[in-house]
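Read as chain and fold; for instance:
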Amino acid sequence: MTRTIAIIAPLIDFCQFNVDFNLRLRKSDRELSLITLHEFARTGFNPDHQFRAHDYSDDIPSAGFYLQGLLHMHGYRTILTNRYDPESLEKLAKEELFAVIVSTTMVITTASLLSLFSAIREKIPGVPVIAGGVFLWKSYLQYEQHLRSPEQYPAHPGMLFQPANSGIQADVLIAAPHGISSMMQVLSETEKGSRASLMHIPNLCLPSKNGFVFTKREDETVDYNRDYTRWDLVDEIFPKIPVRTSIGCPYRCGFCDFCQLYPRIFMRSPQSLNEELTLIKNRLGGKSAVIHVSDDNVFITKKRVHEVCGAIEASGIRNWVGFMRGGDYSDGEISAMQRSGLRMGIIGVESGDQGQLERMNKKQQAPKVQRGIEQLDAAGIAVLMTFVVGYPGETDGTISNTIGFLNGLSLKNLMASYQVYPLQIFSLSELTEPATRKKWQIEGFGETWSHYSMNSARALEACHRVFASVTNVPYHYAGESHFFNRGMFNYETRKALFQLRQQLTLSMASENNFPQSAAVFRELISRMGFTAGNTDEGLQAITCRPGAR
């Protein structure tokens, strides 16, 4: 009999760390990109209108597709979802499930994970819940660190593996950087029912009434050139397709803990990339899609620019986005990106202040980063810039420099956007090291902290200041279509629309300010080419929650 496994792979944790400065349609929660606003106005501000653009809430992270292909290869039937709301879980509960597998790759906090498991157990009782992924591996490394030196690395509420959480509503936690061998052994043992025994399987954590029980540790051997997603075996291929071209990051930014999870760098060969991209191309069958390269830094070396771009160009898909390091680029590198169909580079600028960049150990120069962003924009490649606000050394002056950096960009095509992230002190980052904490007088962890120059409350205020002060670059909207924007509006109109949307957000954030919001909204709609009409009704269908996370 074929066993059915539910794969729950959340894409978005409910504890997101970027500050939300986006307008949304009240009824559908859809972000008000210019294409959405234009269609909303064109339909007479009908809140029930079904919008044409892709809804990114349906996206699945790479781990979900990988697990589905792997389990199908081993003869299991699967149901893959990124949703864990009560209705979705109740629908899964109607299936005759053998197990529920949870990917924690996109989970950010222990509170989120505990809530996720509780929701699953409530709606799907009696079915084994097995979890693995990046968050569990990070939690285990943090646990090891605490065991080695409990005084230097004390337990705190953000830690997963501590007695208070041993009642976690999951049966098996896989704590390993890869974990697939252990997962398959767990499934094999689960087939035995009451005769199953898991203690011989390595790299497991088994929650119990008496605490967490850990099985033996065993190093994994993984050939990432051969171990990629079997796109020919997944049930459905989506318009946004995640691909990983490398593992690890050679840089050691002070706020980041990812370099501790995968300290060794592995770059897949061009041949391996070609094989996976061919599977995708064949599976698409002529349909359009965008490749989302999920590496921390897709262009680790200059040679890598040409290897990755060459592989994507050769695949014929030629439509992709990826995370990349800031800096200026040669004409040859820009040309390679254009030929490969790079649509957007996601760049962690982090600060517009050179002193902050040096304290963060970013090892990059702000003028070169600025030049690179301007090069990409001029080449018709969109840029999403992210900024960390509140790192030790942050002051009103450094915030002013970040605002100046953004307002000083020369953007010929206006295809850049930005997001701000209040500093989070992650468990394995340099900011948890005793010497660093003493040096910068750091107190606290996670999203509640203080240090010699700022605290977490002031960092959030600084994020608001950045949003209110930056008029040269729009805040990021995931559904923004530069193809639509450039085809529909000239440069001056696009810039005016972005600025009016920002003004509308600020106005709506102020209490009892409907008349001003209505005036801004009427001008916004007018600049789009529509008559005023029933704009008050349209405005009432829009909401914002500025500063929400």
In short: The chain is about 40% helix and 15% strand. The chain has a mean pLDDT of 93. The longest helix spans residues 491-509. The longest strand covers residues 342-350.
